[in-house]
Design a protein that fits this description.
Layout lengths: L2 E6 L6 H7 L6 E4 L3 E2 L10 E6 L8 E12 L4 E7 L2 H6 L5 H11 L7 E4 L1 H16 L9
Parallel strand pairs: 1-4, 3-7
Antiparallel strand pairs: 1-7, 2-6, 4-5, 5-6
Helix pairs in contact: 3-4
Length: 144
C-alpha cells in the first residue's frame, strides 16, 4: 500500500466548493496533471491525502483523505472514495507548523505538481499528524 498527496488548485476547486461537494463514502474521479511518483502509479487500496497550499488558498492545509479505487493511466485520472475523518478535516483543516513542514518535505523543491508519492516515513507522519490534530482541543489561534 502506498500513500499519495493530491494538491488541489484553489483557482479551479476552491476550499468552499470542496466543503460543499466532497463527502465521506462518495465515489469521485479527478484528473491528475504532473506527478512525482518514482515510476509508480496509484493502485486500488492506496491512500491519497488532499492538500491546499498556502500560496493560493486563503484556508490552506490538509482537508481529508481517501481510498484509491482505480488509476486510469490513459487520462490520467484518479478514482477515489473519501473516508473518515475527511468530513471533519474539511471544516477544520490540519494547518500548523507541523503540517506546513510535512507538506513542504513531501512536495520538495517542485511544489506545483498535482500528485506526489509519499515515502513510508512521511506517510506515518501524515497519519500521526492528522490524528493529533483531531484529538487536540480547538483553539482560534490554531487556525492560521
Amino acid at each position: 500500500m502506498a500513500t499519495w498527496l493530491y494538491q488541489l488548485n484553489s483557482d479551479n476547486w476552491s476550499p468552499e466548493r470542496y466543503r460543499v461537494e466532497i463527502w465521506e463514502g462518495e465515489r469521485w474521479n479527478w484528473s491528475v496533471g504532473t506527478m512525482s511518483s518514482d515510476g509508480q502509479h496509484p493502485a486500488p487500496g492506496d491512500i491519497v491525502g488532499f492538500f491546499y497550499a498556502p500560496t493560493k488558498a486563503k484556508d490552506p492545509g490538509f482537508y481529508g483523505w481517501a481510498v484509491i479505487l482505480e488509476w486510469v493511466a490513459q487520462v490520467p485520472e484518479l478514482h477515489f472514495r473519501p473516508t473518515a475523518p475527511s468530513d471533519h478535516l474539511k471544516m477544520h483543516p490540519w494547518w500548523d507548523d507541523q503540517a506546513r513542514q510535512l507538506a513542504d518535505t513531501i512536495r520538495g523543491k517542485m511544489k506545483q505538481r498535482t500528485l506526489w508519492l509519499v515515502s513510508d516515513e512521511l506517510a506515518k507522519k501524515l497519519r500521526s499528524g492528522i490524528s493529533s490534530w483531531l484529538s487536540s482541543p480547538f483553539e482560534e489561534d490554531s487556525v492560521k
